[in-house]
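Sharing in case it's useful to others searching the archive later.

Someone asked me privately for the predicted structure of Serine/threonine-protein kinase/endoribonuclease IRE1, so I'm posting the question and my answer publicly. Question first, with the sequence:
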Amino acid sequence: MAFTVGLEWLHEHSIVHRDLKPENILIVGRTKRVKISDFGLSRKVLDGKGFVSSVEAGTEGWVAPEVLEQIISNIEEKYIFTFASDQFALGCLYYYVITDGKHPFGDAVSRAGNILSGRCMIDPEAVSHGCVQILIFIDLMLFKDPKARPSCSALLSCPLFWLTDRRHMFLQEMLASDIEILKEAVGIPFSDEALQFKSCLKRSTIITVSSHRLAKLFEVLKTGPFSKIKI
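And my answer, the predicted structure tokens:
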């Protein structure tokens, strides 16, 4: 999704947003371009690790557990924000989008307590948009340990997070590869006309099958940043 690309740009430029939430994600114009907004609390990370602030940041329900713990127990009123704090909010945002407004840590009353205790309530049956396999990555982004959360760059190496055009091209390449494998298996020469069928497929058809094929494409990622994930 586009806001992952935007957040990656911020992090590459050493900027922590500190207040990611649905209200700060805008859909602009007829093209429905997605933009991240409200940089009033954003800060530049100077040491490459985190930013120390004397002011609380973030919105209740969208704040990472390590930040919540600091707010509750920090007598000196110094709060450390990292890129991983943004990644936690990003995971909450993804779940919010694919479930039509549900929060992975429950209702507003119990949300903060669930975040602190690591009680995540991800429900595959609640997914109404996109591919259910994305819940694997959402779960990683919501890990209580900030060091275990994948960066935006790592997420964007997975086809599930690619924009439509790039995913379309990738699936076409996979279809072409499948044809070559089939030719070898059956030992029958295919005509050029038959081999060109992939170019006649409508984009909508390829995108429709993508959710089914992408489940298998995780095999491709076994040597990548998600090699330890079990499907």
